Structures are given as structure tokens and as C-alpha cells.
């Protein structure tokens, strides 16, 4: 399998990097807030100009009809730049619309996403419980030709900026996926109190669409994490080459160069797993397990690279003035969005009987 990026993918990644350099950076010495970053509309509009939000959607739906590997190349460039944009969230919500919404709604929403006039966001997580795509707190009630939702979803990243919300709720037939207009709130908590909603699907079809949409979003998260790890490794190796101790650069100490080599090996392992998952995501039927395996690999690599980057920078690595600490925090957020290593392994374990045994010593 050839993992070499195409000329088009390299050009796309360079265009995204150039766009982000003009609009945002990980400049040191910036003032950091404890609150989650607000949606940067100017930055998002610049990505719309490069076509990133519409890459996955078909030309019929107003998109560019590209593949997951193209989107992964763009997501990696975003990760390297250190910015936070709702790309993964937009992919999950858009995938649900593409799979479940009527043709006219699909064209309207996805076309608006590509133009930058719409930002659909998924509301799937529920407070005070471990991650699960199956909703329990938010329930749906059917009235006379209409549905209402009650319960709480949190955290819902970028909810105040959303134009559409894709909400999962428990119905009598199982999990349901609903479309809501913008919440108009100011935080990351979505409180529903008999709120009117449009049912897109419920039962097995909704559950399948939800799993596949989360898999696509998972590939984007992995690709972003690869970009963040790449930048963390670059900063670390540069620091080792310039920081002196006992009259010698840190790079001259063999133990530190070995640790940097381990970081590089983990980065390449994560990159390969992510590219394979992106290629698998373009196939039909989509095999969710490929993405779950990639997320497990990326989680392990992110933990090692983030910790080692801080360790080898010393005390400066955890200061607000240095980018390494922010990059590690970003890796933590990416690897814990829509599940973590434990939940991914648990889901993979439920299907272990589907695979034949292998005699490794035969």
C-alpha cells in the first residue's frame, strides 16, 4: 500500500498551512485563557476559501467530492499550525446529514457548509457519564406529527457558533438522530426542555450512521494529532540542538537522542495508522474497526510524544509562554474526544470473535 501523498494532497496541505500562517499561529508569549477557545469565524472563513469543509461532500451536494485521505492531509496541516477549528465536529455532523437527511435538506445543509454559511455541530456526549454513542439522558417524545427532546448534552464544542445541531436521543426504537436549529446559547452545555426537533432516523439505521460518522470524525482527529505531534517533535529537536548543558548541546547526550528517536518512531507509527484508516474510510462498506485501531495507536503515540517533549524541555515546557505545553494539552483533548483508548479497546473487544485465531508459533 502506497502512503506517499499525491501532488494534489501536498498542494492542499501547503495551501492550508499558508492560510493558517496568515491568520493564526502558535506564537509564544501569547496570553492564554482557561476557557475553551471561541469559534474564530475569520479563520474558519479562510479554510472555507481553500475548500476544506466541503472536501468530503459530493459535487451534487455542493462539495468537492474528494476523499478522506485529502481531508486527512488538510487536518494534519491544521494540527501543525496549532489552531483549533471545528473540522472534526463539522465532519461528524455533515456525515449524519449526508446519511440520514432527505435529499433537499442534505443539499441545503452541506452546500451551505461548503460555502461557509452553515456550521453543523454534533451534540452526542452527556454529562457525568463515560463516553458512549448510545444516549441515556436525552430522551425523545413523539407528539402529533412532531418530536420533542428533553435532557442535557455536554460538552458540545462550538455550540454557540452552530447553525444546526445533530442530537442523539433515546427513543422507543433505540437511538434516534435529530436535527435542531441553532441553540443560541453561550456555553458548551445544551439543555433541552421539550425542545422541538426533526427526526432524521431511529433504530439500527441511525445507530449505523452514527458509528460511521464518528469513524470519519475519528480519522480527522487522528490526522490533527499527527500534525500536533510533528510540531512537538520539531520544537523538541530544535531545543536539543540549541540548549547547552555542561558546555555541550543536549543533542550530544546519547540518552536524549535515543528518546527523541523513540518520539520519531511513534510519530511515524501514528502517521501510518492514520493514513491506513483514512484509506479504509473511503471504502464501502466502512470498517469502523480500522479507525478504532488507529485511534488506539495515536493515543499511545500522543501520550509518549507529549510527555517526552515536556520532559526534555524541562520547566519551560509547562509555562504558558512556550508552545510545547499547549501542544500536549491539544493532544490530550484530541485523543479524548468521542472516546479514549480504553473505550476504543473495549469496543474492539466486543467483536473479537469475528476474527480467526492465529497460531503465532506455528
Explain what this protein looks like in three dimensions:
By secondary structure, the chain is an alpha+beta fold. It has 3 domains: 7-118, Butyryl-Coa Dehydrogenase, subunit A, domain 1 (Orthogonal Bundle); 121-201, Butyryl-CoA Dehydrogenase, subunit A, domain 2; 208-354, Butyryl-CoA Dehydrogenase, subunit A, domain 3, CATH 1.20.140.10. The protein contains 10 helices and 8 strands. The chain has helices at 7-23, 41-50, 68-81, 87-100, 103-115, 204-242, 254-281, 288-313, 323-335, 341-349; strands at 120-123, 139-142, 147-153, 164-171, 174-181, 190-202, 244-245, 248-249. The strands form 2 sheets. A 6-stranded mixed β-sheet has the order 1-4-5-6-3-2. Helix 6 runs antiparallel to helix 9 (323-335) and helix 7 (254-281) runs antiparallel to helix 8 (288-313).
Short description:
With 362 residues, the chain is an alpha+beta fold.
Q: What is the makeup of the main sheet?
A: 6 strands, mixed
Mean pLDDT: 91
Q: How many independent structural domains?
A: 3
What is the helix/strand order? Answer: HHHHHEEEEEEHEEHHHH
User: What Rg, in angstroms, do the CA atoms define?
Assistant: 21 Å
Oligomer: single chain
What's the CATH H-level homologous superfamily of the largest domain?
Butyryl-CoA Dehydrogenase, subunit A, domain 3
- Give the CATH level 1 class of the largest domain: Mainly Alpha
